[in-house]
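Backbone description:
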Amino acid sequence: MDRTQERTREIDAAVADIRAIEKRDGVTRESLERIKQRLIRLAARTDLFSVEDFPPPAQGGTRFSCLYRLAEDADQRFALYANSALGGHGTPAHNHTTWAVIVGVTGEELNKFYDRDSEGGVREKGRHVVRQGEGVAFLPEDLHSIHIDAPLLNFHMYGLALEQLHKREFYKAAEHSWDVFPPHSDIREARAGRA
């Protein structure tokens, strides 16, 4: 079996396990922890997930990261992406409107967690660094931001594909207001037989 076939087999097995966890346990902090642990097992296969396989955007361009679609069900559920980033960028505080799990393959991503405050903004309530062997999990309305200083590769798994998330909110700190993320425009197809 070549690396591509083995990678596909490992992805399919992980997503099948994650599907089963959600079906059995629903969407709770506890079930998302089990999903996170299963994704951490997949991310441990660094021999199958390298920056050579999933390169970041070219230096000097307008993009600092790109997503590779590794899995997605026919109904747009259980979408798994590899996020390949150059570093030197981050996101504002935002929600996902679906459950989400991020785990590290290589490199480090600082996640900051927030609550909405009484003035309509956000208040930081914690931090965690996503790296190999670690991750974070979010219920649909949980808020976080990501901060990437150096190149990385990690997994982002969502209960529903990014193109279907039409009401993801983010906080515009300079304007003290909320807005909706535009649709993600740079998802590269990486499913076997779909490229």
